[in-house]
Amino acid sequence: MRLRISVCWACVVLATSASAQSLAGARDMTARAKVLDVEAGSALAQGDRATWASKSDESLKLLREASRIYREMGIESSDDPYLLEEYANALDLARDFDLAAQIFERLTRLEPENAIWRLKLGVALVETGPLHRKRAKTNLERALGMAGDEATAAAAASALGQMYWDASHFDAAARYSEQALGVMPNDVRAATNLAGVSIRNGEVADAYRTLSALTSFRGDEFARIQVTVSQALNDFEQRRAWFEDEAASHAAYARLLSREGRNSEA
Questions:
Q1: How high is the pLDDT of residue 12?
Q2: Which residues contact 153 (CB under 8 A, 6 or more apart)?
Q3: H helices of the chain, where?
Q4: Are 191 and 165 a contacting pair, CB within 8 Å?
Q5: How confident is the model at residue 17 (pLDDT cuts 50, 70, 90)?
Q6: Alpha-carbon Rg of the chain, whole angstroms?
Q7: pLDDT tens digit sequence for 235-265
Q8: What pTM, to 2 d.p., does this model score?
């Protein structure tokens, strides 16, 4: 009997040690992925797309592996909010928004008044698409109302701006995006959506200034800029809108066209 008890405790110690090592490995992978994302963004800002692609790909592989480790450890069934948050953040960074939203929803059930988790749930829901727009709006507005600091409130406003842009409610998109940029001037999502609204309205010089003020961005943010600017330019043309007949506006419009590869028009 004593031998059995001793062996059992040895198994527990080994299992605990293995779990600790797995958790440390997942955390290390996530931390390395974040560094690679920053390096990829810097490379992209300097026009080095090869380095950006390489580092972005490596980062994504690390995040997916970290997410797999969290999942195999059974973290998604845990009631430990800190482990759940780690797992959800890894999923979010890996752009696995459906699963991230599920975990953040569990967290908001554990702590309904946690503005950060409410915000992250809303952002993940925005990224999953229009089917979850109503839930995204509810959670983001709640986060905005509960936020105890300017940064959280600004992030919620930025996400609401994205949601309203996606829903083609452009006045609301501009209003929330301006609110976010007042606190976070380098918020790529807010700047992109505000620039998109400006382009649609023919305020092309304002749009170009807004985009030019961005100093760094991730690869997915760069893609967001390209898609939004392209859509806004098409909307501007289809609406037969116009801009001021002055050199600054013509130059800004030409630069916006050039960003989209429409060089002959530019």
A1: 34
A2: 144, 147, 183
A3: 2-45, 49-72, 81-93, 97-110, 115-128, 133-146, 150-166, 170-181, 188-200, 204-212, 219-238, 247-259
A4: no
A5: low
A6: 22
A7: 888 887 778 878 888 788 888 888 878 888 7
A8: 0.83
